[in-house]
Amino acid sequence: MRLAKWAPPGLAVVAALLLASGASPAYSQARVTVFEGARVIAGDGSAPIENGTIVVTGSRITAVGRRGEVAAPAGAARVDVTGKTVMPALIDDHVHMGYRRGTSFTPDNYTRENLIDMLDRYAWYGIAAVLETGTGRGDLPYRVRAEAHTGARYLTTGSGFGMPNAGPGGPMRDSAYGVTEEAQARKYVQELAAHKADMVKIWVDDRNGTVEKLKPNLYRAIIDEAHTHNLRVMAHTTELADAKDLLRAGLDGFAHMVRDRDVDDEFLALLKARPSVFFLETLWGERRAIFTAKPAWVEDPALREAFTAESVQQLAEQLSPDPKADPQAVQRARTMAATNLRNTAKLYAAGARIGLGTDTGGVTGGQFFGLGSHVELELLVTKVGLTPMQALVIGTRNSAQNLGLTDLGTLAAGKSADFIVLDANPLDDIANTRRINRVYLRGEEIPRAALSAKWNAKG
Ligand SMILES: [Zn+2]
Question: Is the pTM of this model over 0.85?
Fold first, then answer.
């Protein structure tokens, strides 16, 4: 499996190099900060440490443990987080960057400035990394990925694959490679490999009979070529029959859950042979079919710290019953969402690897960068039936593993110092992951108040 090619900027690079070379005297000059007194949730499913200590040196965590059992160097800065809960920053394995800007949704928004702004929005909500799944435009995602910036780490699958004009939805459609020949598909995979794309995305969906589904010989060629270049392949697909054939073809992950029917024993047997295959549920993307009434959190004034009044209004409308909607379409969507929830529970129970993915920024995900990732966790608890701890592990360690991000997802010595300080305990109520006090990425506090001021100023 390939690791992300993202390099932490500045001090982190220096610290890592010094660590590697064993040059401890110079390394010890990096700024050390000790966070003391919080409940620490490591992200690996272990019991929380009550009254814990986290030592951050430069951009890295250098120690985690019980207060009094962790040595902090003299002269270290101290941050009192008594009464708070600290958890790893989240990872979102399925987003669409660039197209949305406020309530507008167009390729014209796909600019460097907007990509950076979105990464800041994810960071504001405590998201450490995101994977752009198949809707990158040209070289820009790779260039922004290589830049030092203050936001979430940016991973991208570049352009994904479908039949011509049959890949992603809405204004993102033209971003994908349209393929009809195996040789051509292989050539495009080689382009992605040359860019060091973080994964490959394919669409295998006829969108209710409106477009042509990517043909099996083509996705086999794509998967084979990708694996030759140590690239994994994830698929947008919804039907069990396609999911089975994709598994047989060597697919590495599912961008959405199977939702046309319940997964069966044959599917579980196929998965048993492929335990590293991951599933993203994108429950946030299906929120309209999952929530039967407007959830109370839509009225939370804190939403206005991240979104304009117009966006919050749009979210409230999306989550309220629509009297003009076609009742049959509503019923169809609800049936698929219910199947998604059942399949998620069934696959989790079977030991499949579940990750956090929201489709935020896409057709159904909307402009609610970061918020969607937190609500996804809540839905895993309230609708799928997982415990808060199980949901947290999915959103942190598991989602980092899915992307090969070995330095993210858990709080432990050697990991990147990417964590969220919460005012309330998410193990009591998973919605408490949204009661964010502070966010740190790469050891630096995200200037949340300044970002809020900037975004509200945009009206
Ligand atoms: Zn998507």
Answer: yes
